[in-house]
Design a protein that fits this description.
Elements (H helix, E strand, L loop, with lengths): L4 H8 L32 H13 L7 H11 L19
Length: 94
């Protein structure tokens, strides 16, 4: 059986659920490789709005707003602190 390289990569990062930082989110964690990327727009609308509002009130720059929204929704309110005052990325290869 041939293993897809992306599956090998995903499996190389797999943790025992008991030692995962996400174990505080609940006893059950999802296992496997995602079938597609997951963005802030894919969140439940009420959860997305709550997280986005928290990021906006923390004065997170618009360029980081979607990333902050997703992190706050998944990891908790404290995740917004990472984005407060974060520099805007510079495009060096137009």
């Amino acid at each position: 059986m041939q293993v897809c390289p992306s599956t090998e990569y995903g499996d190389s990062w797999r943790l025992d659920p008991a030692t995962s930082l996400l174990s505080v989110c609940g006893p059950k964690t999802e296992q496997g490789n995602p079938g597609k990327p997951f963005f802030a727009r894919d969140l439940d609308p009420a959860l997305r709005e709550r997280a986005r509002t928290l990021c906006s009130r923390a004065h997170v720059s618009n360029v980081w707003l979607d990333a902050c929204t997703l992190d706050v929704a998944v990891l908790g309110d404290q995740a917004a602190a990472v984005y407060v005052g974060a520099r805007v990325p510079v495009l060096t290869n137009p």
